[in-house]
């Protein structure tokens, strides 16, 4: 028998598949079919239907499904009325999403990230306003030596683009202008009071009628310097900077720029810059002195906050004759702030008084029986306590020269007193401030832009423009109520009108009196006087105003009213037509204060019944008039 030969080369395998391939395929199909048949027989033998597949269970579930479908299709009427789609979908409108739990981050930097220094935003003055009026300033003696203005190296402009060197000369520690004890920001050449002058509050009543001076028109411009807002901007800019300097990272204000325009009928805006150096130089020659500042130190920029500036942001007030500046010299925001502080002080004083009333004799205030002062030896009230020491003050609290804490406020006062205005004109103002550049002369590696180190100052945008303010003239029409004995001198239908204007003797205000009737001109003229009928008193003046109407009676009926509770009389008021076509109303209530102040300048009325052998009331022998004839 021949031995079979088995080979596994390519040709032998191909030949094997060609000869026996169909047989191999039929064998595989038969094996798979036998396996499937066996699994079917095994499933029928071992796997039976469960309880949920039984016919009874299936019929029960089908019945419950049909009942539920029927209930949904025909719901009860009560449930239909209570169903609200808005109520149902409201929880979906504002879903409550829970915050993810904090996850510990492992990619935090090992060192705090530092940034480069950038240019801070400079905030302008806010709520700028102007108030106009006429002030009576005492005459400056001719022998007063006007101080010379200090050398100013700072540029006059506030655009921050000039040469802008800081002051090389050291300022006098006593104050600007070499005057010891003067407050910071005092214009050069000023002294607190002129020679022979006294504070307004020390002048006796009526002194304004004898003090020589002149009537000066003025405009007081006030605004709010956003100190707290600017400090917050610096903190935000430089708190994370790579280079931090305590001297650079707080704002320092530089000089400021004041612009003024005259309102014209054509509406053309012609803004002109006020040369502050020239203005204060002229003011030092004209103002007789300065009124002491009554504001708390925290309401004004200190010398440390405004270094190197020739003129402080809070302009001093010129001295007035016999009176002081009122609320016109303050911004309304500071008036309200002062009121709040006064109320707070009164509340604290009342609490202290109430606590003092409950303390028994010999009991130490603020301490329990058998214990010392609360807080130890150096606590308030302790033997080692020194009032006003910086160690006992909260961090960031500033102290004034007397050691008292300065209250921190959001704003500082800006004030400019413009005495170069003209009566009858209408003005508008705007102001632009500037800051010393905190990035000046720094290396470029510390700055986000190398050009930030070039500018000396950083100017702000101009502030808001003030509302138009008209400077009044020196002439004012006033009225007053007369006693019954004085009103008998007038004929029926005649009334008295007072004119307050500049007098030739003192240069200040002087009263004139005119007896006229509705429709008459309010011109004081001595030619109207006739023997026994003096219609005008005082210096001649022509107002060209016309008395249009009179309401109320000029006779003061308060002295003739009985004690039966008669109704008060109608207030006295007069309507005048001005030469420019406008109307002016003068009431006795509003005129009373000015009339009482200047009544000493009104000449005494002549007595027509006086004998020839008696001297006249205004004769040279009796120049001041009879004291009981006024």
Describe the fold and architecture.
The chain has nine helices and 20 strands. With 630 residues, the chain is of the alpha+beta class. Among the domains are: 126-338 and 404-470, no CATH class; 476-561 and 568-601, no CATH class. The strands form six sheets. Strands 3, 4, 10, 11 and 12 form a five-stranded antiparallel β-sheet that branches. Strand 14 (495-502) and strand 15 form a beta hairpin. The longest helix has 37 residues, at 10-46. The chain is elongated. The protein starts with 9 loop residues before the first helix and ends in a 32-residue tail after the last helix. 22% of the residues are buried.
Number of helices: 9
Unreliable segments of 5+ consecutive residues: 143-185, 191-201, 366-397, 611-630
- Roughly how many Å apart are the termini? 174 Å
Rg (C-alpha, Å): 47 Å
Specify the oligomeric state. Answer: single chain
The SS-based structural class is: alpha+beta
Question: Helical amount among residues, as a percent range?
Answer: 10-25%
Give the SSE order as H and E letters: HHHHEEHEEHEEHEEEEEEEHEEEEEEEH
How is the main sheet built? Answer: 5 strands, antiparallel
Give structural attributes.
630 residues; alpha+beta; 5-stranded antiparallel β-sheet; 4-stranded antiparallel β-sheet; 20 strands; 21% helix; elongated; disordered C terminus
Q: What is the topological layout?
A:
Layout: H1 10-46, H2 55-73, H3 77-82, H4 85-93, E1 126-138, E2 213-225, H5 227-238, E3 253-262, E4 272-273, H6 276-286, E5 290-291, E6 317-318, H7 332-357, E7 398-399, E8 405-406, E9 412-418, E10 426-436, E11 457-459, E12 469-470, E13 476-478, H8 484-487, E14 495-502, E15 509-516, E16 521-524, E17 536-537, E18 541-551, E19 573-577, E20 583-587, H9 588-598
Antiparallel strand pairs: 1-2, 2-9, 3-4, 3-10, 5-6, 7-8, 10-11, 10-12, 13-14, 14-15, 15-17, 16-18, 18-19, 19-20
């Amino acid at each position: 028998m021949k031995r079979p030969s088995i080979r596994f080369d390519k040709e032998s395998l191909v030949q094997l598949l060609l000869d026996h391939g169909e047989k191999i395929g039929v064998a595989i199909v038969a094996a798979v079919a036998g396996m499937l048949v066996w699994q079917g027989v095994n499933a029928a033998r071992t796997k039976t239907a469960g309880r949920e597949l039984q016919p009874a269970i299936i019929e029960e579930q089908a019945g419950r499904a049909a009942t539920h479908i029927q209930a949904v299709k025909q719901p009860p009427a009560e449930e239909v009325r209570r169903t609200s789609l808005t109520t149902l979908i409201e929880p979906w409108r504002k879903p409550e999403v829970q915050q993810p739990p904090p996850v510990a981050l492992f990619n935090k930097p090992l060192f705090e990230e530092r940034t480069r220094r950038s240019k801070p935003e400079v905030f302008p003055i806010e709520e700028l306003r102007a108030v106009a009026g006429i002030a009576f300033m005492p005459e400056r003696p001719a022998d007063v030596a006007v101080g010379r203005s200090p050398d100013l190296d700072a540029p006059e402009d506030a655009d921050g683009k000039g040469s802008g060197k800081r002051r090389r000369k050291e300022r006098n520690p006593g104050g600007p202008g070499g005057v010891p004890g003067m407050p910071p920001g005092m214009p050069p050449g000023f002294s607190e009071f002129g020679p022979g002058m006294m504070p307004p509050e020390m002048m006796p009543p009526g002194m304004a009628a004898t003090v020589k001076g002149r009537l000066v028109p003025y405009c007081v411009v006030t605004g709010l310097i956003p100190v707290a807002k600017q400090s917050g901007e610096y903190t935000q800019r430089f708190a994370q900077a790579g280079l931090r300097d305590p001297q650079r990272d707080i704002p320092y204000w530089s000089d400021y720029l004041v612009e003024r325009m005259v309102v014209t009928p054509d509406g053309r805006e012609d803004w002109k810059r006020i040369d502050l150096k020239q203005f204060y130089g002229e003011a030092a020659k004209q103002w007789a002195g300065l009124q002491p500042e009554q504001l708390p130190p925290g309401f004004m920029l200190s010398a440390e906050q405004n270094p190197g500036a020739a003129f402080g942001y809070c302009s001093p007030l010129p001295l007035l004759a016999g009176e002081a500046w009122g609320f016109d010299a303050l911004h309304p925001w500071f008036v309200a702030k002062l009121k709040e502080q006064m109320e707070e002080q009164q509340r604290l004083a009342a609490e202290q008084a109430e606590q003092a009333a409950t303390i028994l004799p010999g009991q130490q205030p603020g301490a329990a029986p058998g214990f010392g002062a609360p807080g130890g030896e150096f606590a308030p009230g302790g033997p080692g306590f020194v009032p006003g020491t910086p160690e006992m003050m909260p961090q960031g609290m500033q102290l004034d020269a007397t050691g008292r804490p300065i209250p921190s406020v959001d704003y500082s006062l800006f004030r400019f007193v413009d005495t170069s205005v003209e009566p009858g004109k209408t003005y508008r103002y705007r102001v632009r401030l500037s800051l010393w550049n905190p990035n000046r002369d720094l290396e470029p590696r510390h700055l986000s832009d190398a050009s930030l180190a070039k500018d000396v100052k950083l100017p702000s945008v101009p502030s808001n423009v003030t509302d138009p303010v008209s400077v009044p003239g020196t002439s004012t029409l006033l009225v007053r109520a007369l006693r019954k004995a004085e009103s008998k001198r007038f004929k029926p239908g005649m009334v008295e009108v007072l004119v307050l204007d500049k007098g030739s003797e003192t240069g200040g205000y002087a009263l004139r009196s005119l007896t006229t009737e509705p429709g008459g001109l309010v011109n004081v003229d001595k030619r109207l006087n006739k023997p026994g009928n003096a219609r005008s008193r005082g210096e001649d003046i022509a107002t060209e105003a016309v008395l249009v109407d009179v309401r109320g009676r000029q006779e003061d009926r308060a002295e003739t009213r009985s004690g039966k509770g008669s109704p008060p009389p109608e207030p006295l008021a007069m309507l005048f037509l001005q030469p420019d076509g406008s109307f002016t109303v003068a009431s006795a209530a509003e005129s009373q204060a000015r009339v009482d102040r200047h009544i000493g300048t009104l000449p005494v009325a002549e007595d027509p019944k006086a004998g020839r052998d008696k001297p006249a009331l205004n004769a040279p022998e009796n120049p001041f008039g009879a004291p009981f004839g006024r």
